[in-house]
Amino acid sequence: MTCANAPRWTHANALVLREAGLLLRGSSGAGKSALSMKLVAEARRKGDFASLVGDDRIALENRGGRLIARPHIAILGSIEVRGVGIVSVPFERGAVIRAVVDLTEMEENHPLRPTVLRWETEEICGISVPKLVLEHRDWLGPLKISLFLQCLGAR
To answer: Whole-angstrom Cα distance, residue 79 to residue 95?
Structure first.
C-alpha cells in the first residue's frame, strides 16, 4: 500500500524531536505515551524543540516521497496518562517521520539480559524508514533513541 490516495491509520504515537519526526509503535500498555512525554520533556529541558503530534491513532501518508504523520481529529492535543486519564498537551498538526521505534517484549531466550539494539529498515507507505527495536519499558530507552537519531543525522 502506498498511502498516496488515503491515509493509513496506525496504532502509534508520533512526535517531533528537534527536526526529526518519530513514530513510536507498540502494543497497548507498552509505554508509548509515557515514553513520548519523557522524550518531549527531556528535549525541552535541553532547549530543543519537541512536541507531540498525536497519541494512539496516527494517520500516515506518502506525500511526495515523505512519510507524513497526522493526529486523529477527535483526540487533537490529548494524551493518555496511565493512572491519571486524558490530559491536554501542546501539539503539532503533522510531522515528517524520519524514524520508527518499535517497543517489543523482552526476548524469551535472554530474560535477564537486555537485548542488543536492533536497527533495521521498514517500508511504510512505499517509503523506506530506519527503525529501532527496543524492549518496552527500557529505562535507557530515551538515551538509545537519542543516539539512534544522532546516527541518522550523521548519515
So the answer is: 17
